[in-house]
Amino acid sequence: DVQLVDSGGGSVQAGGSLTLSCTASTYIYSQGWFRQAPGKEREEVAIIESDGSTRYRDSVKGRFTISKDNAKKTLHLEMNSLKPEDTAMYYCVADPSPRRYGVNWGRLADFGYWGQGTQVTVSS
User: Fold this and answer.
1) For 21-32, how does the pLDDT look when each residue is reduced to its tens digit (9 = 90+)?
2) Fewer Cβ atoms within 10 A, N terminus or C terminus of the chain?
3) Could you tell me which residues come within 8 angstroms of residue 64 by beta carbon, excluding any fewer than 6 positions away?
């Protein structure tokens, strides 16, 4: 099994920044972040695949940046210009298999291992 530890969440005012991190117990091919707010559907936020390609949901493009350090087995999500609608529990999801997702990157949620989540709260 793969163990993931999410960290970096917190409370900020609108316009602020946070960086989330996720450390894995093994090498990961594809990793991403999902979020879920109370009473709302789960959303994919961003993904980075083994070739370094990235995808983002439209509402975070230009504000969020996903990156990973393979040597440290760590994934990051830099979040800038945060908005109240970004408030949610954020989860790191990781797939240790060489499966490629491409445009179907939301399927990472079905195949990957999940971290415990880290809360992000943005106040107006």
Assistant:
1) 999 999 999 999
2) N
3) 45, 46, 56, 77, 78, 79, 80
